[in-house]
Every structure is written in C-alpha cells, then in structure tokens.
Specification:
Layout lengths: L12 H6 L3 E3 L4 E7 L2 E6 L45 H6 L34 E5 L6 H12 L24 E7 L4 E7 L1 H7 L8 H4 L2 H17 L3 E6 L8 E10 L5 E8 L5
Antiparallel strand pairs: 1-2, 2-3, 4-7, 5-6, 5-9, 7-8, 8-9
C-alpha cells in the first residue's frame, strides 16, 4: 500500500504540510518539533510516484489528526483538528476530583407581566421644497424655452405673453403653465396648463387657483416661487424635491416673468419638467 508524501522529502505529505522545522534521522524518519503542541515522527513512504498523491492519510499516529493541505492533495471539505500534547497518565491519575457542591433550593421566580408594546408612530411625510438652480444647469428642453424668451425681449426687461410663439417651442408646450397672480400674489391662477402637468395634477387646473389644485404644502411652495419671480422680474430656476405631483422624485422648474402692455410684471410662464407629454 502506498502513502501520500512530499516531493522534497521522504516523509508523509500531511506531515510536511503541517510540520515545522524537520530533520531526517539516520533511519530516514522525519522529526517534527514545536508545531501545534505536538511532537512525533513519521516513517517514510515507499512510493516513488511524485506526479500523483495516492493517499491522503499519514504513516504515523502522532500527526493523524492533522489533515493534509489542499495544495498537497488533501480533501477541501476536511477541516484541521489542532492536536494538543496529551497529558501523562500519572498526572491524570493523581489529579484530585473536585466535589460537586450541592445545589441550593431555588427561590421562587416572580413573574412580571411585560408591558404592552407601544406601536411606533408613522414616519413624517417628506417636506416639499425647492432649491435655487443655476440657469446653466437646466435641461436642454428648458433651455430652448429660455433662449426663446430671451430672443423676444427686444431690449425690454421682459416680454409680453403674446410675444411667446408656441410653434417655436412645440416640445415645451405639454409642460408649460401660464400663471396669473390673485390678491396681490397671495395665490396664482392657472390660465393655461399643459397636458403633462395636468396629468400629474390629476384634475382640470384651468381656471382654478393653485391652492385648489395642489396640497397645502406644495401650493405654498409653488406660490412662493411664483411670487419671487414676479417681484424680481427675472427668470428663476428651481430643483423641486418631494412634490406630491411627483412623489419620491425631483424635477426642474423654470419660471419666466411676463409683462403687461405697460411693461409691468403681470404673469409667469412656468415650465415644469415632469415625465409625460
């Protein structure tokens, strides 16, 4: 019967794998010292087939608990069992057996009723908010509207509503809204509303105020942005987050002021980049 062995020595391959410093004795035995708290020797295997490991067990009982490494032909599912130096028989016989203490009578256990679990309050809904956005960062489709708005200025602070040619901004029309202030800008009225925005609102918006078409928080946010655009008379870009019209997402909003015949700010052209068309 042949045994597994290492090519660089005449000893068992598992012994070489797990062994430490080794030296061959005169009778060709491999001596292992200071490795996993065990000492022993392994007789040489008789096989000379270096190309194939024929067995994965040892030729000595001392190192038998240690499996052979996978690179030496051992089985990967076997885990190493670390051997410890066996205690002398005389020491085990002379060891005194500790008496087992008597178990005291167990005191009665007082059962305390657990307090009823208090349900956690539901998480607060996200707050609808908007952040100023640089006009250089608005989407390309919104840039088309902004370029058209600047083209029809003709030296004025802002164009009139009749100057906006929807044929030249056809891609923007489904997301456009024409807003008119009510009560000095406290609320705004939908004068026109694109179909993409109206689908997100879920109801007919024209001619109704913002406060009737949106939840209170979203309406207050939209009215505040419209009022700021109308008061400054300058185009403004916003990044809107957590709007009920598009829950859990964000979209870009472009507000462009429009004037009346006297050149005073009168309306706001709002582009809301929501999905749909």
């Amino acid at each position: 019967m042949t045994h597994a062995f290492a090519k660089d020595s005449r000893a068992c391959a598992a012994c070489v794998s797990w062994g430490g410093d080794r030296a061959l004795s005169d009778d060709n035995t491999l001596v292992h010292v200071d490795r996993y708290s065990a000492e022993g020797e392994c007789r040489t295997a008789t096989s000379q087939d270096y190309r194939k490991v024929t067995r994965s067990y040892h030729t000595c009982p001392t190192w038998a608990p240690l499996p052979m490494l996978k690179k030496h032909g051992g089985r990967p599912e076997r885990q190493p069992v670390f051997a410890s130096r066996p205690a002398p028989a005389s020491a085990m016989a002379s060891a005194a057996v500790k008496p087992v203490p008597e178990v005291a009578a167990a005191a009665p256990v007082r059962v305390v009723a657990a307090a009823p679990a208090v349900p956690l309050p539901p998480p607060a809904p996200p707050v609808c908010r908007s952040e100023p956005l640089d006009l250089d960062q608005i989407p390309q489709i919104a840039s088309l509207l902004y370029v058209h708005w600047r083209r029809v200025l003709r030296g004025r602070p802002m164009p009139e509503a009749r100057d906006i040619d929807t044929a030249q901004i056809r891609e923007c029309v489904p997301r456009l809204c024409l807003m008119e202030p009510l009560r000095g800008g406290e609320d705004f009225l939908y004068r026109a509303c694109g179909r993409a925005v109206q689908r997100r609102i879920g109801q007919r918006a024209v001619p109704r105020p913002v406060s009737d078409c949106h939840p209170a928080e979203a309406a207050a946010r939209f009215n505040a942005d419209l009022r700021a655009c109308l008061e400054t008379g300058e185009p403004r870009g916003f990044l809107v987050r957590d709007d009920p019209m598009l829950p859990g997402a964000r979209f870009v909003e472009l507000l462009l002021p429009l004037s009346d015949e006297d050149g005073r700010p009168a309306r706001v052209l709002a582009f809301r980049h929501v999905p749909g068309g």
